[in-house]
Amino acid sequence: MNALVMPRQRPRRFIALTLAMAIAGCGARSEFGAYDPPDLDEGASRDAVVIDRPLVLPDTARPQYRPYRSCGALLAVGGGIRRTLAFTPDGRTLMTADDRVRLWNTRDRTLVRMLDTGSGTAALSPDGDVIATPASVGSNAVQLWRRDGGTPIRRIETIGVVRAIAFAPDGRSFFTATLDAIARWSVDGTSMGSLATETYADALVVSPDAAFVASSAFDRTLYVRRIADGATMLTIEGNARSMTTAAFVPDGSSMAVAIAFQLRANFYRTSDWTSERPMPASIGSVRSVAISRDGSMIAIGELLDRVTIGRSDDRTTLQVIVTGDRSDALGVNAVAFSDDGTMLATGSSGGPVRLWCTDVMR
∠173-295-274 over CA atoms, to 5°? Predict the structure, then answer.
């Protein structure tokens, strides 16, 4: 008679390890999910970690995803709500705007130049050569600057206090938001008309084909208007005293919207402005949104010091970054991809701007 062979029991420690790894994969903090960058600069925080969350099997038809890791950069910037992050096309310079407009060298993370405008809003032209800012705090004028050298180009008088600025995709004109209107201006100072506004707009995004402009109003309602005739195409009510941000997919086919206190970024089809499948956040309320230049990725800044990165087409989560800025009550309120997608910048109110790089950059 053959002896009964009992199956080998899995050690309890292995079971506990497997469970801990599964919890880390669901977005919980865990020593198994933390990444301690080996090349952090001397001043860099080791609280900044990355949790990778592969939720689907590899798709051989897609390019391999390259996770972002800390570049070891902590850019010491001023206070105020960080509203603007923008890379130049070559990725060598990053513009930040809070109480000042600053230009940074992304390779050695040094401050290149500061524009003393005293304003928390700025726009970088598509070619990266021109910066537009309010002439001063509470100014009724826009100041254009040469990025290379920081010298003034032209002062353009507007009607009303300038709260937000956005360049048109061709870089030959820009939009301003004031109490009374969203206006369009040529870079030579010529008025190109205006659109009526319901409330005080304080953020602007222009669609890639310059057909639509999205504005976040002071009451956090998001309006999308057709530039040709000013017709309102979409109205999204946000939350009072909260942030509402938007980003267009590069081909202009859809728009992503992040409304504070929601746990997802909503998508809308621009052909008929119907809603599409949303992109879920990891565990926190959404604060900001960005889409990569090639349209393949979306980044969502969240309240709980996290950034969720996913595919923009099927809304699959690829990675969750924990920035380490847990003391910031407003969370990650600005995110931006470099044009080639090898760098990601994240910003929080009163905290540092952090750079995250793929292995191509490291």
Answer: 85
